[in-house]
Amino acid sequence: MSRDDDDSIVARYTAWARINHWITAGSLILLALSGFALFHPSLFFLTNLFGGGQMTRILHPFIGVVLVISFLGLFLRFVRYNFPTVDDFRWLGKFGAVLRNEEDGLPEVGRYNAGQKLYFWGMTFTIAALVTSGVVIWDVYFANDFNIDQRRLAVVVHAGAAVAAVLLWIVHAYAAVWVRGTVRAMMRGSVTAGWSWRHHRKWLRQEVRDEKRVPAE
Amino acid sequence: MTNTWMDIKNSDVIVIMGGNAAEAHPCGFKWVTEAKAHNKAKLIVVDPRFTRSASVADYYCPIRPGTDIAFLGGVINYLLSNDLIQKEYVLNFTNAAYIVKPEFGFKDGLFTGYDEVKRDYDKSSWDYEIGEDGFAKVDMTLQDPRCVYQLMKQHYSRYTPELVERICGSPKEKFLKVAEYMASTSKPDKAMTSMYALGWTQHSKGAQNIRTMAMVQLLLGNIGVRGGGMNALRGHSNIQGLTDVGLMSHLMPGYLNMPTQKEPDLATYMSSRGFKPLRPGQTSYWQNYKKFFVSFQKSIFGKAATAENDWAYNYLPKLDVTYDILRAFDLMYNGKMNGYICQGFNPLMSFPNKAKNLQALAKLKWLVVMDPLQTETARFWENHGEFNDSKPEEIQTEVFELPTTSFAEDEGSLTNSSRWLQWHWPGQEPPYETKTDIDIMAEIFLRLKTMYVNEGGAFPDPILNLTWNYQTPHAPTPEELAKELNGRVLEDITDPADPTKIILAAGKQLDGFAQLTDDGKTACGCWIYSGCFTDAGNQMARRDTTDPGGTGLAPKWTWAWPANRRILYNRASADVAGKPWAPQKPLIQWNGSRWVGFDVPDYGPTIKPEQSVGPFIMQQEGVARLFARTGMREGPFPEHYEPMEAPIANLMSPAIKGNPVARMFKGDREALGSAEKFPIVATTYRLTEHFHYWSKHVLPNAVMQPEFFVEMSEQLAAEKGIKIGGWVKVSSNRGFVKAKAVVTKRLQPLKVDGKVQHVIGIPIHWGFTGAAKKGYGVNVLGPVVGDANSETPEFKAYLVDVEPTTPPVTEPAVASVSSSKKQQG
Amino acid sequence: MATYQSLDLRRRSATTEPPPSVRGTAVEVAKLIDVSKCIGCKACQVACLEWNNLKEEVGVNVGVYDNPHDLTEHTWTLMRYTEWVNPDGNLEWLIRKDGCMHCDDPGCLKACPSPGAIVQYQNGIVDFVSENCIGCGYCVKGCPFNIPRISNVDRKAYKCTLCSDRVAVGQAPACAKACPTQAIYFGSKEDMIEHAQGRIEDLKERGFANAGLYNPEGVGGTHVMYVLHHNDQPQLYAGLPNKPQIADTVALWKGIFKPLSLGGIALAGVIAFIHYITAGPNEVTEEDVEHAKALTGGRDVS
Q1: Treating both helix axes as pointing N-terminal to C-terminal, what angle do C189-205 and B30-39 enclose, rounded to 10 degrees?
Q2: Is the predicted pLDDT of residue A215 greater than 70, yes or no?
């Protein structure tokens, strides 16, 4: 039903933003796999993906470092679009309609809807918790800097935050699949105007306005 | 030890004073835990520090270092004034009833006969009144004011609990509690053991410290019984053996005396060694002195020792003075001794005044060090900054290091504290070109002999005639040497009644010293060791753990001197009639025809009880001496004297400074410090993690106590601004050391004569060789003075001051390095 | 450390299936440390280094007798010294041999993510199997006594093995063998408890009214037990935990949290799938495209 061939294109993410996103996504996946490997005996087989238990244990925190730096880039890039607005609450109030793909009665959405914003802040907080607790239990370098009670607390916080992050990620990934036309935003950097009209109308209006202001050369 | 390690389990009260058995003798200490666990024993610790022993004690009482005689004198007073003594024992088995000469007296801290110039006594008044029958007079009612009991009572009446508290700093109630524990063993069936070590010996009056406790033990009836005794804990696995075979300049094997210049011939030498009994019918075993002496001469000089030449008496050196190690270093220091063979010890670190020792060694032409380890003595010339500030470029001493085997690499016997001669076998081959001490000594001797043969000499006879009948002359076997010590029959010995009947055939190994003769027919290297290696084989190699009656004597385990006797004076374990004092713990008893029991009787086996032969058969009196008529240089009764460096005047006799008969060399007395400049009492000791200066060469030991430290109270640290784990400087009038501060509740300031007295503790184990962190020789600090009787240095009580400081300079000073480079250039 | 037969195992870390040994029983062993007999000589510490061929570093003195100052990858047992003035005003020098307590319910094993890196033998000994250890340090956090240490060299966890290699051939642990005062006993747990009763009676007679056996219930009892003069105050002995148990945080983390979160994650996936097959994908309609075209004029917006 979509008419890509007929639709015009709206730029959504620069190449740098996409690279940044996929580094973040990749490291998150690796972290999840290596983390799950150590999380439950039944998943210990996953350590084979990383060259065994010792290597999994060695690599996991370093991937974490990549994630932190990469996510920091994303954060700085997108934080300004993610402050909540009054419309966000109204949007959330009609979340049932969202789930039923009925977007007509919703307030017009800007660059990000309330769900995306929640995801943004969710990831921000879980990653912050993961990195903080991760440092406390990164024994190779920091074992002597924290007492045993702090380290005991950190393992729980780390596991809890990781599960939360994974749950958020499931929502995020599913939403990308569910809302057709979304994936290309991060793949090709652009979305169709129709998609923009449907999901981020306010943003589209803004983009069009901005372009008019800048005369074409 | 009069008793044995295992016998400690039979004790009812165990007193650790003048030692720290848990710390320094942890393996033997297991018998203390056995006594506590199975005999409900009480463990009492009296020590300046709350030690590892104190940590498992039932009662602890602090004491100022160097005041043990005052403390124990107070105990004697307590026992006598409360009549808490074992009366029958004291009356019959000690000289309490003996009447002392009327000339004998005691005034102002001195006994009769003192010569201030010689710092010595004319001891002629220290003796019994001899009756017309030629025997000592006694008063068995103990009422005669001149009897030992009354004199002793009078002497110690001055040692009141109040005075003990003022002198020792031991709170009165704690002192009395200790006295009460001790007194509880005056019951005939109760026994107390005294475990002591260097805490009593390393004093200017060390021998008297021990004697005071021996008197306490006699008053309580605790000598010769199971679980009793005076038990010296020897610090080295074979130090008992060292004294037994006479490795001291004034001794010969078996506690025979080296002749002096006053004894130019055998007749003179023997004239003072008749040991005639002082009471009728007494054994006085030293009457056999000549048998021991002649057999010894036959053992070392063989055929060259004859009746005609007084058994080669003229081969023996005659002493002008004793040549103890303190004197040896003084001679080196003064350039009068210029070669030195140092075998198996580390005098640079072990004897007082390290600076003097260093200079003394630097004046030698040559130094030979025989040791399994790289000792500081062998490296005395190396500069290690403040740890050993020598000037290598100025030292010309040629040092030869001869590596020797350790105990685990050779065969032989070790004599432990229990007087057991325990044979041991090598656990492994010695490394590289290491040789046994025996092989090295044999090589030296044989080369020396060759030189005498070829070049003659002033007096070659003793060297040329020394018996050397070993299968391999340059490597005598330990078994050959042990057999020599045991002794053998040289000529057939016949029955006096029937000369055709041979009792002992030539060539037979002796069964024991009872077979020795003074006519040259027997040879014996060390009479007390006779019986250790008989025709029945090597008794020292026995490993039979059979222990009849569970006494802890295990008579078939190795061999104990004398005569495999495990508890000395064991006749005293039974009453006058021969019945055991403690029926539940019998040792030997009279069965109507002989003395029988678990141990070899220290007594004629068939002497009837009614013969009134005393149980202390080595004494001319046959009884033990509460009043020591001979043997002690300070006097017949131990008297409290302050250490040579003391924080207060002697409260008993203020005019007396230190031990009045202690010997001090020129310069050493001047080096004593005053309490004004050095107000803190220091005491030195060993830690369980280390053995002297040896174990710091072993990694695990070095890990356990890596670095030199001193211990002090929290109060002193606060006063001086010293932080836990910080660096402190400890100075005496002779030098200083720097150490880490261990600030602890285990040391508490004492109240001495009403004033606060701080005491610090200094463990001794570090030096500039080995695996542990480098540290100072603690002997920098102590005074150069020894016990008046044995010349054991006074390391346990002297004066210092402490202050916070900076870490030591550990590398040689730059100037010294550049000057040596200059020399090389 | 030691090799083992799986039949000897009672528990195995990060393993969900029950080990064969649950079918049988074995005599449980225990080491009894009689603190009241201990003189703090450190022979046990040296014996441990020697038997296990461990090389500890020569440290420095920091003002106490405890050397090294803490357990390390090499120091599996350590004497800890406490000076305590009792209510009577008398000093007591409490010396405790610290090391793995070999809990019956071992927190380390519970926390370990690596299958077979930590095992518990039938006799109760808890052992680390180095070749399976991944060095994550979870055991350190799981241990209620703070015992395991991770090597800085090979990043594997180490602790007292209770000399499982010696015990396997009928020998007592090296420390028990070396102890000069027999403050360390070794035998069946039953016998050790019985022996301890005699010692406790003796201590009570000597005035230690609260003498007792330290065999904490919170970790199912231990296979290293102490006779304490003051069993009412174990914390006096260099902070021996009063009522040790696996930390709540660790219990939470390794307990209910794991299945719940895995379930939660799975559930999230299922819900998404159901949503997809019921609500279907959210697609752009022609209407949307028309509206957009009206706005953009059919041009791309860059």
Answers
A1: 80
A2: no
Domains recognised in chain C with CATH numbers: 6-254 (3.30.70.20), 257-296 (no CATH)
* Percent of chain B whose predicted confidence (pLDDT) is above 90: 93
Is residue B37 classed as helix, strand or coil in its secondary structure? helix
Q: Is B699 a residue whose pLDDT tops 50?
A: yes
Nearest-angstrom CA–CA distance, B574 and B590: 8
Using a CB-CB cut-off of 8 Å, the residues of chain C touching B701 are 46
Q: What angle do CA B7, B9, B10 make, to 5 degrees?
A: 75
Separation of alpha carbons A16 and B539, rounded Å? 93
CB atoms B60 and C58 under 8 Å: no
Mean pLDDT confidence for B452-465? 94
Look up the ipTM and state it.
0.92
* CATH code of the domain containing B781: 2.40.40.20
Distance from CA of B207 to the nearest CA of C (A): 29
d(CA B465, CA B38): 57
B82 lies within 8 A of chain C by CB:
no
The Cα-based distances of B561 to B25, B517, B548, B622, C74 in angstroms read: 21, 19, 20, 20, 45
Measured over all CA atoms, what is the biggest interatomic distance in chain A, rounded to whole angstroms? 64
Domain A4-213: CATH superfamily is: Transmembrane di-heme cytochromes, Chain C (1.20.950.20)
pTM of the model: 0.91
d(CA B170, CA B174): 7
Label residue A1 by pLDDT band (50, 70, 90). Answer: very low
Q: Do C92 and B37 touch (CB under 8 A)?
A: no
Cα B629 to Cα A23, B333, B812: the distances in Å are: 99, 37, 55
Residue B166 counted as domain residue: yes
Domain count, chain B: 3
**Tokens standing for residue B208:** 């008297």
Which of C46, C50, C83 is facing B745, going by the closest CB pair?
Answer: C83
CA distance readout (Å), B199 to B54, B202, B345, B523, B784: 14, 6, 20, 39, 17
Q: Give chain C's length.
A: 302
